[in-house]
Amino acid sequence: MKREQGFSLVELIVVIVLIGAIGGIFAMQLGPTIRGYIAVGKRAGLTDQADTALRRIVTDVRAAVPNSLRLGSAQCLDLMPTIGGGRYRTGPDVDVAGDAFLDYDTPANQFDVLTTFRTVPVAGDLVVIGNQNPEDVHDPVKKMAVVDRVEAPPAATLGAHRIVLQAPVQIPAGYEGGRFVVVPGGQQVVSYVCTTKPTRGTNGTGTGTLHRIVRARSPAPACDIPPGSPVLASKVERCEFVFSPNQGATQQSGFVQLKLTITDSGESVSLTLGAHVSNVP
Questions:
Q1: Cβ of 225: how many Cβ atoms within 10 Å?
Q2: Which of 216, 241, 189, 219 is nearest to 78 (CA)?
Q3: 202 or 50, which is more confident?
Q4: Could you give the 3-state DSSP secondary structure of residue 62?
Q5: Tell me: the pLDDT tens digits for 167-215?
Q6: Using CA of residue 139, residue 142, residue 148, residue 153, what is the dihedral sign?
Q7: Run of H or E residues at 235
Q8: Transmembrane region positions (predicted)?
């Protein structure tokens, strides 16, 4: 008579206990590694978010109108962005007629551009020449040179472009740089604002947000955050802007320092980034 093969209840219990013990050992050995892998991935994401936000600010700072950066508070910075610029004709061309230039004596509503544009200005953009302090460009009471159109000069030797303004403009007294910058008409002022006093919540996540806000010109920096403002970074635990307007013996540049800490579920990343700010119009 053939006997059936199988296992007893005792054998089954022994196997279950052994498998459980082996599984526990593996969990003890691999658990920290897996948790570390997950934490590294989370920190990498936080680092990328903080780095992207700070570099976006630095890009605008470096391309801003000289002497246009202001601090409303340690969590509020604004500036006047640019989309380009170049050199304008500062005197008449003795060889070719039909030139257009700017000087100190006579206001003019057009001028030849001696350099090429990466982004050609359009109607409504602003032209800034020789700005010396933030109040000159941010005050809405003071009139700005507004582009009417950009066309080709009568002769190629006169320049690459000719800018026609909506009203005559005159060079600021004492300015000899021969340079101008162009501010987009639809983005005259950009503010970077963090929510007031961000901190770490009870769940270990930052409670603040960093916003990039487009505004109109105003005499003082605006630090309010309108509903629906674009978010540059979230889960912010700390946000601080430090600006020294005059660095060095020549005072040709300032320096802005940006500090940002982003925290998510106990994981935290802090970055500090600095940039020189041109004071030379």
A1: 17
A2: 189
A3: 50
A4: helix
A5: 999 888 788 889 999 999 999 999 999 987 788 888 889 999 999 999 9
A6: negative
A7: strand 231-247
A8: 7-28
User: Of 196, 212, 207, 269, which Cα lies nearest the Cα of 236?
Assistant: 207
CB 177 within 8 A of CB 280: yes
Position 193 scores a pLDDT of 97
Alpha-carbon torsion 148, 150, 153, 154, what sign? Answer: negative
Stretch 97-119: mean pLDDT: 91
- Block residue for tokens 């630095």: 58
**Quick check: 127 and 117 in contact, CB under 8 A?**
no
Residue 275, both tokens: 């940039």
Q: Which range, of 55-59, 61-65, 172-176, averages the lowest pLDDT? A: 172-176
Q: Which two tokens stand for residue 86?
A: 């170049």
SS3 273: strand
Best CA proximity match to 177, nearest among 60, 72, 281: 281
Q: If 0-12 CB within 10 Å is exposed, 13-18 middle and 19+ buried, where does residue 161 land?
A: buried
Helix (H, G, I), strand (E, B) or coil at 55: helix
Please check whether residue 109 is in contact with residue 164, taking contact to mean a CB–CB distance below 8 angstroms: yes
Q: What local confidence, expressed as pLDDT, does residue 141 receive? A: 86
Query: What's the Cα-to-Cα distance from 224 to each of 58, 78, 133, 192, 221, rounded to whole Å?
Result: 21, 12, 23, 10, 9
pLDDT for the residue 248: 62
End-to-end Cα, the chain, rounded Å: 107
Check the CA dihedral 239-46-270-69 and report its sign: negative
Rounded alpha-carbon distances, angstroms, from residue 242 to 54, 69, 192, 199, 270: 13, 11, 13, 19, 16
Would you state the structure tokens that stand for residue 119, as one six-digit string?
A: 């982004």
Count of other CB atoms within 10 angstroms of residue 215: 16
